[in-house]
Amino acid sequence: MRFAELMAIGTRIETGTLEFSAEDIVRFAEKFDPQPFHLDPEAAKDFVFGGLCASGWHTAAGWMKMFLAYWAAESARLQAAGIAPPDMGPSPGFRRLQWLRPVYAGDRITYYATLQASRELASRPGTWLNTTLNEGVNQNGDLVIRFESNVLEFA
Amino acid sequence: MTDSMSDATLHFEDFVPERQFPLGPKIVSAKEIIEFAAEFDPQPMHLSEAAGKASILGGLAASGWHTCAMMMRMIVDSFIGRSTCQGAPGVEQMDWKKPVLAGDTLKGFGVVLEARPLKSRPGIGIVRMRTELRNQRAETVCIAEQSIMFRMRESGENRA
Predict the structure, then answer these.
(1) What residues of chain B have any CB closer than 8 angstroms to a CB in chain A?
(2) Which of B68, B93, B121 is nearest residue A57 as measured by Cβ atoms?
């Protein structure tokens, strides 16, 4: 099965919701992004964010986590129906990532993916490049992150 | 916080075009790769050496998001940690050029491309940078273009 058959172009798929606890925010930031507004609720008050908020990379990694959860469930569903799931390869990267609002401790982010384009590579027949628009929305309906990513698919 | 900041603290004005900051080195362990992947990107080539070897990546390979996070840590350790950083609006582009494999040593640089004051937020400027990481084989593993906000030196006392 092709990816574009599973996710119709232009259809926004909800992949899952992730809650960002203060503990998770600090644990990620201690390893990867130790800035005051990601580590300490009191120190965060001195910054424009005004409260403890997640590293943008934590928010982005959360998209991957929920996409894979969705993907695992879809793959299992297809296999149970006797259909081979799309054979997805690695990603060469992403474009236009925007952190539009802070993700604060206690926020629940619902993630989405929308397939925008799927094209066969002229240089590698049998390999497709899929472009998706990826988004995260908080519990108030505000968009907090968006980016466009590419992922390879093999025939 | 402002009072404790010495002149050595990097402000917006210090990020002049072409200025470079070193990143790394950082040795990437198998344990870290697996730990990150188990939480955020549990695909076989990020979780075991055998699955990595069998994949197009050729070995136990870090999630691209892990590489981003490690790059962020190198950026914090290099210059953000001694700056007036006010967060980042986004990343225009991230290219994952080569797999980051267990045991690799990553290092690179960040270079300022452009710096301009933010009209919407007096006292804050935005700096666009290119950051690159290479492995011990001198292969470029990732290239990013990203924007970071910094408070200005002269407006340090009257920010909102």
Answers:
(1) 1, 36, 39-43, 56-57, 63-66, 68-70, 72-73, 76, 80-81, 85-97, 99, 121, 142, 160
(2) B68
A143 closest CA partner among A114, A110, A113, A94: A110
Give the pLDDT score at B155. 54
What six digits make up the tokens of A35?
């800035």
More confidently predicted of A1 and A19: A19
Q: Which residues on A lie below 8 Å from B121 (Cβ)?
A: 48
Q: Are residues B90 and A33, on separate chains, in Cβ contact within 8 Å?
A: no
Q: Which CATH number fits domain A3-154: 3.50.50.60, 3.10.129.10, 3.40.50.2300, 3.40.50.1860?
A: 3.10.129.10
Cis peptide before B25 (omega within 30 of 0): yes
Dist. CA A26–CA A18, nearest whole Å: 16
Mean pLDDT (chain A) is 95
What is the ipTM score, two decimals? 0.96
pLDDT at position B3 is 43
Would the CB atoms of B88 and A57 count as touching at under 8 Å?
no
Say if the Cβ atoms of B94 and A94 lie within 8 Å: yes
Domain boundaries, chain A: 3-154
Verify whether the Cβ–Cβ distance A98 to B90 is below 8 Å.
yes
What is the average pLDDT across A80-105?
95
What does the alpha-carbon distance between residue B77 and residue B134 come to, in Å, rounded to a whole number? 17
pTM: 0.94
Chain-chain contact of B73 with A34 (C-beta, under 8 angstroms) = yes
In terms of C-beta density within 10 A (0-12 exposed, 13-18 middle, 19 or more buried), how is residue A81 classed? exposed
Domains observed in chain B: 10-151 (3.10.129.10)
Shortest alpha-carbon distance between residue A9 and chain B (Å): 23
